What does this fold into?
Amino acid sequence: MKCNMKDLVISVILFLYIQHIHIVECTCVLSQQRSTESFREMFMGRCLHYQTVINSPEFCSQPKNCTLLWELFLQGFAYQPPCNTSSEGFRPFVRAAYHNTPRDKHIFWSGVYRMIDRYTYGGRKLTAIDDTLIGYLVDGFDFCGSTTSADGNEVNITSCPRCPHSASTAFWSIASINYALDAKGAIKIMLNSSRSPAIRQSSFFFTKELPNIHQPNVTSAHVLLVHSIGYQPKENCSSPSVKNLTTILTSRGISTVCEEQPRDVVLLQCADFPSSTDCDNILISSGSDRQSAHVSFITAVVLNYVFQSFMSHR
Ligand code: NFD
It folds into this structure.
């Protein structure tokens, strides 16, 4: 049998593929099958990391017991049917993991999951729910109970369906209510104006958080409408769903302003999509900014000329 270079290369690639195929499968299996022990380890790691690195000043004098938090969290859904989990089961966990959060820093959101962590600067600038210990411990995990497994945790995560009373919905409902009740002073609300309506009536924000945002705890609200750069927004501050929100807040005595495509958000978007035409003049975006940039430039040229003339005549 004749064997040319091309066959040899294909054989090597096939060999390497066969050698590594188990790694590919293993990664996929890991995201579908998660033993209680590895779930526990990930949770514990997050718990220690949050208290020692992310937000250490808050826990210096009173560190939380991560083992206890894991047990309380697991008790929230263990042995319960995946679509029949109650929020009440998570109350002991939410109570135990609660810690103080700063005034004027809470940010609520809907439809902008990917943007929010960057906007809060991982909790350094603002505090989204995932920047609190309660949210940080659970964000991004799928989980549900099992009525047949030994410890009540479903190992096969693909058996954790999305349903109105899923473990995940039960947890985020009570966590969101708790987070809203804890807001103090000025709040921000970031909404996705690339979709219509910007606020879905079934969202966690609308059903769990908004009903629990009240005076005198919350005094003012800044609504930020954000759309994908390079596209036209579908909603603006006058759209019915946004107007409805501002009316609700104002009627509660919370002074509310709405801003479309805030500059600091656009700058973040442009860092990711610098070639978007919306980013062409981003550093000199508004008319007054552009004018003052021109004035500064002309002033600098004139001063330079005067300085050079002065030096040459000495
Ligand atoms: P939503 P909402 N990847 O956008 N909250 O108003 C992953 F992994 O419809 C926070 O219903 O807004 N998850 C959290 C995603 C959860 C993605 C629940 C994505 N690309 C409630 N997009 C949280 N995990 O931080 C969306 N999701 C998830 C509170 C998202 O994680 C917050 O304080 C969430 O589970 C915020 O003010 C679900 O889809 C408001 O409720 C609904 O996101 C956001 O809930």
The chain has two domains: 32-261, 263-314. The pocket of NFD is lined by residues 108-111, 113-114, 129-130, 135, 139-140, 172, 176, 179, 203-205, 209 (CB under 6 Å).
